[in-house]
Design goal:
Elements: H1 5-15, H2 23-42, H3 47-56, E1 64-66, E2 71-73, H4 75-87, H5 100-115, H6 119-137, H7 151-167, H8 172-184, H9 197-218, H10 233-237, H11 256-260, H12 274-287, E3 294-302, H13 303-308, H14 317-320, H15 324-334, H16 344-347, H17 350-356, E4 359-364, E5 367-368, E6 371-375, E7 379-384, E8 389-391, H18 408-421, H19 428-436, H20 443-446
């Protein structure tokens, strides 16, 4: 018998204020907010959010801030632009099969500013959005990427709808309508990875969440079985039609945000490259590998990860984010993969292009039971020109994974680097401190003073 997933989500959203949320859930939500706002600032000057802002031409005098620009916009548009900025550099966190914070945070931030809500309400809405995302993604045993879907755009629209419905205090019926509306606004295809359209998926999902909750509150109707119906979302996106629509939900009883947490990125590139980057950087440091002495680099990864890493000889920084070949070349030549390397100039350097052509992928179907798309571990082998072969350790968890968390010092260093990259280094410490005390502030207090920030065209 098919379980009423859409209504279960609506019920959870409507009753979430009555549920006691674990402290760890709220701590993880704060982590999601702080990391996302950092990478949002870093991405604020990228072409994608600025082109979108130019086309939308948001009206001044609205309640919601386009972060880092001093401009304001209606909440749906602010969520849209900020969501694109947050995902523009592919530096945002990873969890439950996608990038949850890059959708949920911009939607909550914009709507909470408009409604003048507290930081505590924002954190609780984040948990609601994460749990809705997890409820759906964990019902699909296959890889959405395998069918060409971008999970962040697919699950994100529903998660943002749930979070914004919570902010607006919708009852069960209207919350169910919001979730169902979000299901019809889910979108995003992998063919657009490595272009401005990939971060557009995240921003559009954030915009969809704000709009879905507002429309539902106004009485807009949708199907109360939009997710589980034979022609509903799960059937439509499932690669092999194996989505579990029968299992009872444990949402609100088992907190997936506590069980699974967030994986914070150390590198501004597709997360599928991170374990191998860690492996090669460590091997380079341990063995003193000099890039000019490298003959070939072989990376053992899953076949599913290889599908996502579609660019084998990238020519731009955007393309390089989805290239294992570039990740290995950068790690070998510079000993890092940072925002400074993900530029068109560095990607097209002759030594980088040459080394990329000497990277091989060794594909495996030995999947990790905790992460079916990933191999049980990634490993790098370097063959030197003198014939020596060097093997890295077997890396199962990238640094920054929920099971290998970054230290608070590392988190603050990443945040400060992102704010500095966005051209506002003087704002880093004060904003980070406010984020660490988010429960005690309102959305407007969190961003106090930022409306006077330098405007970037």
């Amino acid at each position: 018998m098919v379980f009423q997933i859409t209504q279960a989500l609506g019920r959870f959203v409507a009753t979430a204020a009555e549920n006691e949320m674990p402290d760890r859930a709220l701590e993880t939500a704060r982590l999601g907010f702080s990391d996302c706002i950092g990478v949002m600032y870093a991405g604020r000057n990228e072409e994608a959010p600025n082109l979108l802002a130019g086309v939308l031409a948001p009206n001044p005098g609205s309640a919601s801030l386009v972060l880092g620009h001093g401009r304001t916009a209606a909440a749906p548009e602010a969520a849209w632009i900020n969501g694109v900025a947050a995902h523009a550099l592919d530096f945002d966190d990873v969890g439950v099969g996608g990038h949850p914070s890059t959708v949920i945070v911009p939607a909550i931030l914009a709507e909470a500013e408009h409604l003048d809500l507290s930081g505590s309400e924002m954190l609780r809405a984040y948990v609601v959005g994460y749990e809705a995302w997890a409820e759906l993604s964990l019902r699909e045993p296959g890889s959405l990427h395998g069918k060409g879907w971008h999970p962040t755009g697919i699950w994100g629209a529903i998660a943002a709808s749930a979070a914004c419905a919570r902010l607006r205090g919708l009852d069960e019926r209207r919350a169910t309508m919001a979730v169902a509306l979000g299901a019809s606004m889910s979108a995003g295809i992998m063919a657009n990875f490595g272009t401005m359209t990939k971060p557009y998926h995240a921003g559009r999902a954030a915009h969809a969440g704000v709009m879905a909750a507002r429309l539902a509150e106004a009485g807009f109707s949708s199907s109360p079985d939009a997710i589980e119906h034979p022609q509903g979302l799960l059937s439509a996106v499932s690669p092999r039609g194996e989505a579990d629509k029968e299992r009872d939900s444990t949402i609100g009883q088992v907190w997936q945000i506590v069980e699974r947490g967030l994986n914070i990125k150390k590198f501004p590139a597709c997360y599928c490259t991170h374990r191998a980057i860690d492996a090669l950087i460590d091997l380079r440091a341990e063995k003193g590998i000099e890039p000019e002495k490298v003959d070939r680099i072989t990376v053992s990864i899953s076949d599913r990860f290889a599908t996502i890493l579609r660019n084998h000889q990238p020519q731009t920084g955007l393309e390089a984010k989805f290239s294992m070949e570039f990740a290995m070349a950068s790690a070998a030549i510079r000993g890092r993969v940072s925002l400074m390397e993900l530029t068109d100039d560095f990607v097209t350097q002759p030594d980088v292009q040459d080394l990329m052509s000497r990277v091989d992928l060794d594909l495996t179907q030995n999947y990790d039971p905790d992460h079916p798309n990933a191999a049980l571990f990634d490993q790098v082998m370097v063959r030197l020109k003198d014939g020596d072969e060097l093997k890295s350790a077997e890396v199962r968890y990238a640094r920054g994974h929920a099971r290998e968390p970054l230290t608070e010092r590392d988190l603050q260093a990443k945040f400060s680097a992102c704010i500095e990259y966005g051209g506002a280094e003087h704002e880093a410490q004060g904003l980070f401190d406010r984020l660490m005390a988010l429960e005690d502030l309102s959305a407007r207090e969190l961003l106090a003073g930022h409306r006077a920030a330098r405007v970037v065209a």
